[in-house]
Amino acid sequence: MRVGAAAITGVVAVAGVMWISRSGPTDTSVATEVVRLGATDADQQAGSFEPADLFAFGNAAPGQTIVVQSASGDETLAGALMVRDGYLVTSGAALGGADDVLISWGDLREPGRVVGYDAVTDMTVIHVPGLTADHDHTDALVAAGDEVIMPGDDGTAATQKVVAAASTSAWANGDPLVGIVELDGRIGDVAPGTPAYDMNGDVVGITTATAETAPTAIIPISLAREVASEIIDDGEATHPWLGVRARNPESGDDETRGSLVTAVTEDGPAADGGVIEGDLITRIDDQPVDSMAAMVATLRSYEPGDVVNILVERDGAEVGCTVALASHLDVGA
What we know:
Strand content: 35-45%
CATH architecture of the largest domain: Beta Barrel
Oligomer: single chain
Radius of gyration: 20 Å
CATH class of the largest domain: Mainly Beta
Structural class: mainly beta
Distance between the termini: 19 Å
């Protein structure tokens, strides 16, 4: 299974060479699934824990993270997070098309094999037979302004702030990523695939392979876990597909809000439902849409096959469109 080595280089927007840019979310928080690693409630309340103490569980010692290396062990490719006994999730674009890798975790060295890749989220699942750990996960929120920390394999950690909790989509290997969380720093020396933690030691996302000069981007952990589970159980992950490209409208004196459709896929779901280029999407069912980020986040709550009512502004009038969402796997089929 070849994944490809290109990093994320641009937003889904108008044609041309782009880069990941801040667009600003409507809803500044997004639900994430959390894995509690080491700090007890008493430690958190007393404020007696240190970030480096929170990255350890199972086979790892404090400060040690899961590292994905080339099969020969001579090149570090990515970080990773265990999502199920024997299975890790990481950034697929960082693996450079490798099928076989070496997993390094503390004193542990085990071979692993890529079993699935999801182009929509850049999430890849690696199978490492016999690798086990305890899992205790709940729900949490990450919001704009929150600090997150990303540990390095040398025990250090990079701290950055959330800029947008459901930022504009980005491109990886020619495929659009959905619902990324944008941070205020650059990925720099943080290995793609490294889990991002909040200041309580809870996992909030998985870093993706952005270009070194682009803002750090993470996939919310709830989405990463859902994708990983589908790959493990079904062999692939599915996502609802609307069949449009869009961007935020240019701000005017009236502060126009919505998601401006810049292209519609011929014979795609939106086209079949009556959406046309130039429409301004303002609502999906009962959810207001005042940015492209809001549209992406709203669509994530649906499944392929769901029928949604989309309200658009067209030539100064409101127009309703009924759209049956398809699967991104149908693209090009």
